[in-house]
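Record 1 of the preview.
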Amino acid sequence: MAKHTKNERVRLDDAARAGWLYYVAQNNQDEIAEKMGISRQSAQRLVSLAMRERLIKVRLDHPIASCMALAQQVIDRYGLEDCQVTLADPSSDDPALGIAQVAAAEMEKYLKSKSPIVMALGTGREMREAVKQLAPMNCPQHKIVSLVGNLAPDGSASLNDVIMRIGDVVNAPRYPLAVPVVATSVKERDTVCALQPIRRNIARAQAADVAFVGIGELNEAPPLLTDGFITQRELEALIDSGGAGEIIGWAYDENGKQIKGQTNARVASVPLSQPPVFPIIGVARGANKLRAIRAALTGRWITGLITDETTARALLE
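->
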């Protein structure tokens, strides 16, 4: 690979940023110019440069130096095994923007293994969008298992369940967790989790080679509430107990400690070890998730993180 001068590297970084804003975040050239503080003509030239230098494929194929530096700082600060930081569009509230593509690429690395692996998956909007980005693959040697139940209290299926979709995309056997996310009682949770097929899938998930999970916030309208898994009263009780975030339904406080009792007494998801016994990669971004992400890192719920540059900077403050 040809070496570039410092000015050329800065120019390529700018081109990669403009290319990302255009092809991934779907900004027009006027919006790119405004966000980067340049003229429309300069924005047009940078997007053209990104194409000419083949920085743009289906995914952005250019390691932004500042993002790589941020990723290393997050690794050092929180003792992670891995961190990937992508570009950010500050004006977007899409929770999966940019990070879904990176998560999909990371999943594909594992799925390309010729040796059989077990991949465990959480749920959420970020996970759903990541699976949409996966390229079709033929992976009958692998097993895809769910970490979280896919049933709401009314019996409906979770809109963000990914286990069936990914099985179709990569042609791998899938093992769903056909239980409520949060059971109506401890007895109900114990009963359904004692069923032999459920016990087997929980055991598969706990012996996975890698897991990918979303990180949910606990605020006035978190996914647990809006998706119908908990009530307003249950949410208020979690917040009163110091709840900061949740992973596959397990709620934790600002120090990353699992909240005792409350809805956690009825969660039917796979229990997770702290620290994890296998790689667990969190996929999350955004100011509304910052508290939940920081607490997950502090409590060592995850070994890796895929996020964006704005969130990474905030985690380092």
